[in-house]
Automatic annotation (TrEMBL):
Spans traversing the lipid bilayer: none
The keyword Lipid metabolism is assigned to this record: no
Stretches assigned to the Cytosol aminopeptidase domain: 302-309
GO CC term, one of those recorded: cytoplasm
Alphabetical keyword list: Aminopeptidase, Hydrolase, Manganese, Protease
Single Gene Ontology MF annotation: manganese ion binding
CDD domains according to UniProt: Peptidase_M17 (cd00433)
InterPro entries from the UniProt entry: Leucine_aapep/pepB, Macro_dom-like, Peptidase_M17_C, Peptidase_M17_N_1
Record-stated family: Belongs to the peptidase M17 family.
Domain of life per record: Bacteria
GO biological process: proteolysis
Protein name (Swiss-Prot/TrEMBL): Leucyl aminopeptidase family protein
Organism listed in the record: Wenzhouxiangella limi
């Protein structure tokens, strides 16, 4: 059931109030209702709400507390707490801020119930019809990403990830292709080598949508459905969350869903190398040297740095097929988390001015990204004596940056390229952001792409 409705005769007024807002509301309220609020001890704090009765014992309105600058998450706690029914937000905020609050309300209703169904809630928010389609698309795309990331690898291998992409292509009228088997081994050796140890064969997933004469845009996502670390096996604590190592793939599918559903004027291509980094007798080894689709050789310093290896072949294909702009997304390095934490993914780009514009837009949208430099002198860290590149490098420093420089090698110089090193996960529960899979940067990237290309 949709959490949004365009009209309702029985919608209850919903007020999102900070301290000053509550004072103004009390000044204008019915005296009995004002006395009810004052007697209740309600304080307009983030996450608190109060049902205000009418004279007949029914529900007159709902007051919800927030901090002064809250918008996106101002209403996110309500879908799981309000009585079933329809609600209408009463706020004189600018249109963009209203839409953000609605998005947060929609995300607040998310539940991953595939394995543990819960009671169905029937809490809906009234929104203008003109805003409904984009609102539902943005909320649905984030929930789609969350569902994919939350699904355990037992039920989401390379084939299942490909099937999800195929279903998306069918719904949106896109072309779909899976490259696997002997062709994958022959044409995409880096993807094949990383995934060959798993009983579930690796593949390259490819979607194409849009008019042929539209600007070519490519999205590339890391699809490591589970990362054991390979022969450089992770400790148990480091392996617990590794079902989320396909978070980059989930994100580019979510972004593609927005682009296709809202009709961005691009010739879109999506590339996902889908592999499991497993251990068996034919697993690739530290010190192996592999040849990539580009022809460059890579010395394997650490089999747990597999994401950049599989992305190399996908980035090469995106360039071969004429992409003028590439955005790749990947749960690539722990170094990014050490530097910026779980909520703030770094964005690397060749065009610093554009990257900073995306950063500024992302903070305005409350979907933050942080521009990090592609510092060229650190290329020396990933240049071994006996191969073109090392997948682990010679330094323990600047791990996220050197991973970005590794990817940069496989993107042709003329391409406008952006790399996001995402976490794709919430460590704990917060309103609208339950512990588990998370979509990061989708709305920010969509807003920027909409500015660049239009609908």
């Amino acid at each position: 059931m949709s959490m949004f409705i365009t009209d309702s005769d029985c919608a209850v007024a919903l007020y999102s109030l900070d301290g000053d807002g509550l004072k103004r509301w009390l000044e204008q309220a019915d005296s009995n209702q004002a006395r009810w609020v004052e007697t209740s001890g309600f304080e307009p704090e983030r996450g608190r709400w109060l049902a205000v009765p009418d004279g007949d014992g029914g529900l007159a309105c709902v007051l919800s507390g927030r901090e002064s600058d809250d918008r996106l998450w101002a209403l996110a706690h309500l879908p799981g707490e309000l009585p079933d029914g329809d609600y209408r937000l009463e706020a004189d905020w600018p249109a963009e801020e209203l839409q953000r609050a609605r998005i947060g309300f929609g995300l607040g209703g998310y539940r991953f119930d595939r394995y543990k169904p819960g009671p169905e809630r029937r809490v809906r928010l009234v929104v203008p019809e003109r805003d409904l389609h984009e609102l539902e698309v943005l909320v649905d795309a984030s929930c789609y990403v969350r569902d994919l990331v939350n699904t355990p690898a037992l039920d989401l291998g390379p084939a299942e990830l490909a099937r999800s992409a195929e279903q998306l292509a069918e719904r949106c009228g896109a072309q779909f292709e899976v490259i696997e088997g002997e062709r994958l081994e022959r044409e995409f050796p880096a993807i094949h080598v990383v995934g060959q140890a798993s009983s579930r064969p690796p593949c390259l997933i490819r979607l194409q949508w849009g008019e042929a004469d539209a600007p070519p845009l490519a999205l590339v996502g890391k699809g490591v459905i589970f990362d054991s670390g390979g022969l450089n096996i992770k400790p148990g604590a480091g392996m617990v969350l590794m079902k989320k190592d396909m978070g980059g793939a989930a994100h580019v599918l979510g972004l593609a869903k927005i682009i296709m559903s809202l009709g961005l004027k691009v010739n879109l291509r999506v590339y996902i190398p889908a592999v499991e980094n497993a251990i068996s007798g034919n697993a690739y080894r530290p010190s192996d040297i592999i040849r990539t689709r580009k022809g460059s050789t890579v010395e394997i310093g650490n089999t747990d740095a597999e994401g950049r290896v599989v992305l190399s072949d996908a980035l090469t294909l995106a360039c071969e097929e004429g992409a003028e702009r590439i955005i790749d997304m990947a749960t690539l390095t722990g170094a990014a988390r050490v530097a910026l934490g779980e909520d703030l993914p770094p964005i690397y780009a060749r065009d610093g001015e554009r990257a900073r514009a995306i950063q500024d837009l992302s903070f305005k949208a409350e979907d933050p990204l942080w521009h990090m430099p592609l510092y060229a002198p650190y290329r020396d860290y990933i240049r071994p004596p006996i191969a073109d590149l090392s997948n682990s490098g010679t330094s323990k420093f600047a791990g996220s940056l050197t991973a970005a420089l590794f990817l940069d090698h496989f993107v042709e110089p003329q391409v406008d390229w952006y790399h996001l090193d995402i976490y794709a996960w919430n460590l704990g529960d917060r309103p609208g952001r339950p512990a588990g899979g998370e979509a990061q940067g989708l709305r920010a990237l969509w807003g920027w792409l909409d500015q660049q290309y239009g609908r």
